[in-house]
Task: inverse folding
């Protein structure tokens, strides 16, 4: 079964305190679904239409686990804490292998 990758791009951080509070909850909320964080931080280089923004790349054992993690009650509670703290773009994609 192919792994899945959850990519979060922060378009704007409006309230860093809300982002920090969200981060404290999000990791533990996703852990039961097998999350592994691959990279997080501001892009070191951008090309074409790339934006220099904060990006988080996470790996999950499967596409279904990534989707279930997002939709789970613990992660939804973390999202409520984030509230209007950031404008983000989240994409979940299945790996090739």
Result:
């Amino acid at each position: 079964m192919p792994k899945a990758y959850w990519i979060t791009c922060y378009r704007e951080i409006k309230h860093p305190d809300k982002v920090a509070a969200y981060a404290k909850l999000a990791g533990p909320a996703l852990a039961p679904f097998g999350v592994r964080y691959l990279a997080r931080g501001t892009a070191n280089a951008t090309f074409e239409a790339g934006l220099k923004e904060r990006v988080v790349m996470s790996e999950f054992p499967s596409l279904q686990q990534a989707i279930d993690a997002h939709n789970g009650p613990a992660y939804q509670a973390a999202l409520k804490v984030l509230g209007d703290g950031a404008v983000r773009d989240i994409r979940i994609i299945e790996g090739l292998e």
